[in-house]
Each structure stands twice: as C-alpha cells, then as structure tokens.
Design a protein that fits this description.
There is one protein chain. It is built from 1 helix and 6 strands; from the N terminus they run E-H-E-E-E-E-E. By secondary structure, it is mainly β.
C-alpha cells in the first residue's frame, strides 16, 4: 500500500509552480527529488492553491504520479523560504454507485 512520500521543494519545483500560476497553465510536469533517497519522481501538478497567512505560507493541491492521483501539501511557517519539504499522499478513489 502506498503511504505517500516527502520530496524536496527545490528551485525547479518552486519556479515551475510559480510559472504554472502566472501563465494559468492547466498542468505542469516537474521532477521532485524524494527525501527517502530513492531518486526522482515525475509529478504532474494540476490544481494548486496558495494561502498567505500572517505566520504561514501554504500550497496545496492535486497532482498525479505514474498515472495515480495524489494530493500535495507544502507549508512554510513565517514565510515561503523557511521550509523545503513538500508532502505527497495518494488520493482515496471511491467507486461510483450505479
């Protein structure tokens, strides 16, 4: 069972998500370095929502990895340069009734 993973919020991911927002792109494919040391994952970011609070910056949204749906979350307390971990969790897919 896939429990998700943590990746590094490196400049390529940060700049790619910024570009996606600025250009209003439907999706963007970026490589994320896994923190468990198993290499890179190609992540297709789809929905990205940004929140600015007085003491925290947050990015959350949806993405796909190897064709499977995931959610992601990036939280940076006290500003967007103070944290480098972006977390990915698989989405629970429910079967339709009918």
């Amino acid at each position: 069972m896939d429990n998700g993973f943590d990746g590094l919020m490196l400049a390529n991911v940060w700049n790619g998500l910024k570009l996606k927002k600025e250009k209003n792109m439907k999706s963007i494919s970026l490589k994320v370095l896994r923190m468990d040391g198993t290499g890179l994952e190609r992540v297709v970011f789809q929905e990205v929502m940004e929140t600015y609070l007085p003491n925290e910056y947050t990015l959350v949204g949806t993405c796909s990895i190897n064709g499977k749906p995931y959610t992601f979350e990036y939280r940076a307390p006290f500003g967007n340069a103070n944290h480098t971990v972006i977390g990915f969790k698989p989405m629970k897919v429910t079967a339709g009734v009918g």
